[in-house]
Write a structure and sequence with these properties.
With 142 residues, the protein is of the alpha+beta class. The chain has 4 helices and 5 strands; from the N terminus they run E-E-H-E-H-E-H-E-H. The radius of gyration is 32 Å and the shape is rod-shaped. The chain binds zinc ion.
Length: 142
């Protein structure tokens, strides 16, 4: 079965119709068995459909987006690697650890990284503690 969008040249009605095959459509049209649902005119035509063109375009866009995404992801991963190699992971204790470094004057200690809420970051900033938020990709995510 094939579904065609049909268009009536007489009244501009557009409607869908099912045919066993494209040959059947041609046969019905030749025999003047195809008529408009609304005005019964025989000036009914298949509308030109271009789904392939549309698909092609969106696929290209998708590819570009994916490439962009992968590039960004690579940058983030490189950054993550640097952080993991050079900083100490403190998990959810980030705000606590950041304060302890700041207030205990452990300036020479290794930098830290971990998770903190936006609230935490705001408070740390108000206390003069420098912290930065960076995008993070989960190891498990691919
Ligand atoms: Zn019509």
């Amino acid at each position: 079965m094939i579904k065609y969008k049909l268009f009536c040249n007489n009244c501009d009605l557009k409607f869908d119709s099912w045919f066993a095959s494209s040959d059947e459509y041609e046969r019905l049209k030749k025999k003047k068995l195809l008529n408009c649902h609304k005005c019964n005119s025989f000036k009914v035509e298949k509308t030109i459909m271009a789904p392939q063109l549309i698909n092609k375009k969106s696929k290209t866009d998708e590819k570009i987006n994916l490439e962009k995404y992968n590039k960004v992801k690579k940058t983030i991963r490189d950054y993550q690697k640097f952080i993991k190699d050079n900083l100490k992971y403190v998990g959810d204790n980030f705000a606590y650890e950041a304060r302890s470094i700041h207030y205990n004057g452990k300036k020479k200690s290794k930098g830290i990284y971990g998770s903190a809420s936006k609230e935490d970051l705001k408070e740390l900033k108000e206390e003069g503690i420098d912290a930065q938020m960076i995008p993070w990709i989960d190891e498990n995510e691919n």
